[in-house]
Each structure stands twice: as C-alpha cells, then as structure tokens.
Amino acid sequence: MRKVTAGLFHSVDGVVEAPDQWQFDQFDDELGEMLGGVMARVDTVILGRKGYQEWAGYWPSATADGGFADFINTVPKHVASRTLTGPLPWNNARVIEGDVVNFVRDLKQTEGKEIAVMGGIEIVRSLFLAGMIDELSLITHPVVAGEKRRHLFAPDDPVTRVSLVSSTTTSKGNLVATYALRG
Question: pTM of the entire structure?
Fold first, then answer.
C-alpha cells in the first residue's frame, strides 16, 4: 500500500495560509534538503481546487526555485474540486471524479511511490480526518504571521488523537513535527 503524506508550513501564531508572504527569511538549507527528500519519494500529488488554481498560475512559468518547478510541473496531479471540469490546462493535471476519500483509498492500492497532498488546507484537513493521510508534517516557522487564515482544523472537528512520529529543529529555528493518526 502506498503512503500518503502532507506537509504544511505554519507560523507560531497558527497561520497556515500564504507562507510565501512570511517564511522567506526563515527558510534554510535543512528545509530545502527535507523538501528535496519529499520530491524524491513522491510520484503523485493531490491538490485542492484553490491550491491548484494558485499553483497553475505560477509554477508552469517559474524557473529559479531549487527544482520544485521541474517536479511539480511534471508529476501527475489529481485535483479535488466540485467546480472545475477537465481537461485541465496544467501538464499532468486532472480533476478527481467522484468522492475524494474513495479516490485516495483506491489510489493507495496502486503501484508507485508516495502520494503527497499539497497546495490546499481544506484537502489536507479533510483527508487527514478521514484517515487517508498516513503522516502529516507541520513545519513551524519562528514568526508571528498576523492576519491570515489560522488553524488547519476547525472548532467543530472531532477530537482526534495523533502520535508524534518524528521531530527536528533546523538551524534557523524551524520545528518540523510529523504526526500520524493514533490507531
């Protein structure tokens, strides 16, 4: 069975939106190496609609980024959306037909490397609470980001127990904590 992972950047005050606007001076070589490792392990990406639309407007023409553009522009991308219809213009992107949880459950049973859920707070939240994400990495930057969307989870989400799989602190003080649902 294929492993499904997700990672989100967030600030000390819990902001999970628009990390490109507040992480710039905290991103370090260790985070770059970690993300390079993710790209090496992943051969399939799941995106939410908002993340897809933002990324499809930027990454196809991006060049100087340490290799992420090459990765994200070529990897197969499955987009969870109730409003988008295919075919999608971004290379190797397609809309998920039917129920997203069932799609991911079936995708986990196929041959391949890791599946990464990227570019979408809501898709990460819903798939994690549905038990479809095997590991969730939260990358906490030592910054107060202010007025952006806070919190990955909603006040009415059920109490959900998790276990710490691993944690590390980078040279610039970023805390990378990886969690799994407790069985």
Answer: 0.91
Those residues with Cβ within 8 angstroms of residue 75's Cβ, 6 or more apart along the chain or in another chain: 42, 43, 44, 45, 92
Handedness of CA 118, 101, 2, 43 (dihedral sign): negative
Pair type for strands 77-80 and 42-48? parallel
- The domain ranges of the chain are 4-181
Q: Report, at the CATH architecture level, how domain 4-181 is classified.
A: 3-Layer(aba) Sandwich (3.40)
Q: CA–CA distance from 172 to each of 21, 36, 66, 103, 117 (Å)? A: 17, 18, 19, 38, 25
Q: Which helix (H) or strand (E) holds 117?
A: strand 114-118
> Mean of the pLDDT values across residues 154-163?
89
Torsion angle, alpha carbons of 144, 8, 125, 47, to 10: 130
Spatial distance between the Cα atoms of 94 and 120, rounded to a whole number of angstroms: 16
Q: In this model, does residue 115 exceed pLDDT 90?
A: yes
State which amino acid sits at residue 151: H
**pLDDT for the residue 38:** 92
pLDDT tens for residues 23-64?
A: 778 888 898 898 899 999 999 999 999 999 999 998 888 876
